[in-house]
Amino acid sequence: MSSKKMNLRVNPNTQNYDITYHKLEFTVDPANYFITGKVTTTFTAISDLSTVTFDLTNQLMVSYVTQNGLALAFTQNTNNELVITLPSMLNSGASATVIISYSGAPAKGEDAFTTATHDGSPVLYTLSEPYGARDWWPCKQNLNDKADAIDVYITAPAEYVSVSNGIEPETPVINGANKTTHFHHGYPIPAYLIAIAVTNYSVYNQTGGTAPNQYPIINYIYPETLASVKTQLDQTPLILNLFESLFEIYPFHNEKYGHAQFGWGGGMEHTTVSFMNNFDRGLIAHEMAHQWFGDKITCGSWKDIWLNEGFATYLSALVIENFDGQTAFANQKTRMINSITSQTNGAVYLTDAELTDVNRIFSSRLTYNKGAMVLNMLRFKMGDILFFQGVKNYLKDTNLAYKYAKTPDLQAHLEAVYGSSLTEFFNDWIYNQGYPIYTISSQNLEGGQAKFIINQTQSDPSVSFFEMPVPIRVFGANGQQLDLVLNNTVNGESFTENVPFAITSLTFDPNKNIISKRSTVTLGQKSFDLNAIRLSLDSVSNTLSLDLPSGIAIEKSVIYNVAGQKIKETSSATTWDVTSLPAGVYFINVVTNSGKKKFKFVKN
């Protein structure tokens, strides 16, 4: 989803049972802001229950609740709860089914239930993420429970087409002026992903997947826009095939995929049917990606929302990479990096305090773009084979698939294939804030080598140092080009690399794989002539001296005897007292900032 305003609530009073099934029967008319519903819910007690609580706005009026045909007592309170008194204690592990009948004008605070018009025709649609489902039906909407299956029956005026999750097991039934359409969804689903829409849709059918695992793509489009969006919709099976090739088969391939046009300014990844304002390829890709990341595996808390939105944003960028090429992919990553670095702070993972800030939860800069670029950096650090294998393993983990995941679950799967800890990476890039600013200097050495020194500052004090492989590209005078990756783990780190030409210029991160800003690269003076270094021995004072031209610095010197035994080693010294050395032939190996040179001297 793109962002939406909402008021976050977690209800501790719904934690003592597990939803297994909903039968949702709704009667609506897109011309009227009103709903009549009958919701049949089967649940299993997690602890002994004498009452059961559902989330439901107190603006909807419950007329009766029954169990096995017996009317049950209930109350609706000012906390937007429906509290039902069970006929007897329901023991932990036991299941029960209740039927709730209600009606009214749904709460409008979160725009979860909307009626409007398009081209003069009425339209009704829902959008419940994250806590709007209770505004139009009695549910449990915390991120710790999914119904194992649902059946949805929508009764509406017969001239309209109704849409919901899953497939239609039978053709709609017309009864007088009304028509009832039945949808069955046989996969686990959280409350916020259940949706309905009703208007005078035109239907555009396609086919997704590859034999033998093909499935229908059903697009519900406003008739006035269908002709103009068919070409865009024809990208849908191509993108599905790409995601299946990169990750795994479409998670709901036993049912359908598709789109339903609606009036909210973005998209929403309702399971098997994304609700869409437009059919831009990037939006199609983003909402489709959620079917894997968000719908099959759902973030286990709103602090982990990047597991939904970061992945969907990155997969949309992967469509650019695979369909448009590396230059377009780098341009998209540049746009994301510019967004992320437009401010110096901000973490991907949310704090408790930030959960009250709706704009922060669905921040395009942090949740979407930084979440996506962190995935790109993990891919760059791990390599394509290991990164994609780790993500595939995450998707097929039976403890997560069609359930919920939190950030450590993804980290564990990536570490398992990488073979090394990613704790430092996750601490720096997910839990803490900011980004590195690099200053990289280079210098040509003799013998087809070049030296690079990397310095780094951080935009936010929460990270003391970002350990990252740093990509640079060097160029020569005759069009030569070489890509290097310097595994930078400490500040001021020096790297000597083989470069078979004199570097005339260089660039930092040419493919835009790292979140950074204002990073600079400089080319030092050309390689020095090490023959200009002179070694002399004063036979009176027994002092050995190196005469260095300007710009050359000694890093290490080692003196050996003629048998190759090490006599003395120093760091930056340029003079040595050799009085104690026996007479004979010696060698001194000198390591400078511009290369190595070996000298011979004779002590008399």
TrEMBL record:
One Pfam annotation reads Peptidase_M1_N
Q: Quote the cellular component terms of the Gene Ontology held in the record.
A: cytoplasm; extracellular space; membrane
Instruction: Give residue ranges for domain Aminopeptidase N-like N-terminal.
Output: 21-193
Q: Which InterPro entries match?
A: Aminopeptidase_N-like_N, Aminopeptidase_N-like_N_sf, Peptidase_M1, Peptidase_M1_aminopeptidases, Peptidase_M1_dom, Peptidase_M4/M1_CTD_sf, Secre_tail
A single Gene Ontology molecular function, please? zinc ion binding
Cofactors needed by this protein, per the record, are: Zn(2+)
Keywords, sorted A to Z: Aminopeptidase, Hydrolase, Metal-binding, Metalloprotease, Protease, Zinc
Instruction: Domain (Peptidase M1 membrane alanine aminopeptidase): give its ranges.
Output: 282-429
A biological process from GO: peptide catabolic process
Q: Which family does it belong to?
A: Belongs to the peptidase M1 family.
Q: Indicate what this protein is called per its UniProt record.
A: Uncharacterized protein
The record lists the organism as: Hucho hucho (huchen)
The lineage is:
Eukaryota, Metazoa, Chordata, Craniata, Vertebrata
